[in-house]
Amino acid sequence: MKIGFDAKRALNNSTGLGNHARILLNGLHQHFPEHDYHLYTPQAQDRWLHELNGDFELHFPQGMFYNTAPALWRSYGVVNDLRKQRIDIYHGLSNEIPYQVHNNVRGTVVTIHDLIFLKHTVQYPFLDRKIYELKTRYAAKHAHKIIAVSNETKAELINYYNLSEQKIEVIYPAVDELFEQVVIPELIQSCRAKFALPEQYILNVGSFFPRKNQLTLVRAFNTIKNDTDVDLVLVGSSGFMLNSVKQLVAELKLTNRVHFILQVSSEELPAIYAGATVFVFPSLYEGFGAPVVEALWQKVPVVTTENSAMQEAAGNHSLFANPLSYEDIAEKILLVLNNPELKMEMAERGYTHAQNMSAKHFAAQTMQLYKQLI
Q: What is the side-by-side order of every strand in the sheet holding 258-261?
């Protein structure tokens, strides 16, 4: 098969959507090398090209018009290229597909990660929300198959867009294979020294947006600060709520107990997970929640929220709290910290659950969907 992908985020984004795309592309090429993989993108950064492991054929806008208007090429002009190159399957990796692509290739797939722009509007400017809505609605209606990253996202798609359940396939995404590997103790100690981390810490990883709910987590930590010597570590590199979180930490006089890591490499992050005592992810809304799975791979017990997508990601042996109640979050954290046997059981059972979301499994399920379409 000749399979084409919208590779804009794979080759330009450092965030979750970019990681998701690169993990899938590398997994497909590694486990199914007999197929031809074509990547369509307005531009590509060398940093992310080097993250791809395999022989991918790259395609960029051609001609003066599309070179000066690459967004139009990605949404319209790319269809002519797909037809000329006889692409069998086209996969839009992040909520959108080009106009009329479904009439020009044998099968179209779109991955829809979430509908955050409809539910947490404060994170997006008005115009961006309208564009996301139009593109997502078009893709959901016209793609031959939709991949939803969780049953929660599937239910929302059916509810918002009145879609047939049979059109949507739930495929849980994987995390980078770096997180699947055992981190050597020397690297854990090296990261602990580099970032001045304590021997034990509560960890949170995520961008600083309102829905990530770090303000509530800080308040939860404040209620238990005298009941534990374990500190709180917040890892994140973006988001307009960072200053608000720092301000709350200062107001509560927690500066010596709350640590911020704002720049971390992909090689260091697994070690930071592995050194944690418990991972806490109090997000108000996620399409899936990759940081939860990253923590589980490193045998770290997880406390997260009662959102059903979080329960899918975290599995039955994690603990779930009301995201609006800092008291409930604090109670669940202390439950883990004060019960070594529970902590060990959560870590081992969580690790077993994470293995159902390996990169190999992710690629295999996606390839099976492609074959069904052909």
A: 258-261, 231-235, 201-205, 278-281, 302-305, 319-321
